[in-house]
Amino acid sequence: MFKRALRVIPRRTVTFQTFNTPNPNALKFVAVDSAIVPLENKSFEFTSSHDAIHSPLARQLFKLEGVRSVMLGPDFLTVNKLDHVNWAHLRPEVVELVDTFLTQKKEPVVSRDLLEEGEREAAASEYDSEVVSMIKELLETRIRPAIQDDGGDIEYRGFDEDTGTVFVKLQGACKSCGESEVTLRNGIESMLKHYIEEVHNVEQILDPEEEIALKEFERMEANLKKRKESPPPSL
Q: Any signal peptide, and if so, which residues (predicted)?
């Protein structure tokens, strides 16, 4: 009696393309022919494992040594690392983790609550004033695609009619990049002021949790730098 040979079915994998960004501590991972976040025009950024409570994928990424923040987009993700971590070690770990997560599909990338929140934000746009609608349209059609190409994103946070100030939140590679202020002034602010006379300036804002995380990472990096600069103990 012959035993039937078991057929080995190869595991389906996700192909990733990795792109450098203007920020040397951030890499953009694009999933080829595969979706990550099931919302076409929405990205979600997480600056700590606690902040990532609504994203099982982001929580897993924060378990990798050296991950500073994670941004998940429709077909890409951007990972920011700490200064002392080498991409040669972290990059393959990110690719393997995300590939396994997306192919096994044991958990959603982000929770249903977070997706519904994004959908509510989109629905609220129906009540925007004419000026706010123009600001959002420019951000969405002219500015956001260029920022996403660099592994970042931009989120509209408000408009002060009295001062003509547009408040935005930069995400991903752009937020922690040394060129973020140049992007804000020479790119975003210049374009909005050119097309919309009511706009006088643009300001970037951070959520309270992000300010705390930023100070903590700055303290951590300062301590690591101090250790490297300290001479070894004499015998």
A: none
What pLDDT is attached to residue 2?
Answer: 47
Q: So where are the chain's domains?
A: 16-112, 124-209
pTM: 0.73
DSSP result, 158-171: EEETTTTEEEEEEE
| Residue 90: pLDDT over 90 | yes
CA nearest neighbour of 143 among 71, 23, 41, 69: 41
14 alpha carbon, distance to own chain's centre: 20
Tokens of 4: 């039937």
67 Cβ partners below 8 Å, 6+ apart?
61, 79, 80, 81, 82, 90, 94
The tokens of 171 are what?
């995400």
Second CATH level (architecture) for the domain 124-209: 2-Layer Sandwich (3.30)
The third-level CATH classification (topology) of the domain covering 16-112 is Ribosomal Protein S8; Chain: A, domain 1 (3.30.1370)
The continuous run of DSSP H or E covering 138 comes out as helix 130-138
In three-state form (DSSP H/G/I as H, E/B as E, the rest C), the secondary structure along 203-232 is EECCCHHHHHHHHHHHHHHHHHHHHHHCCC
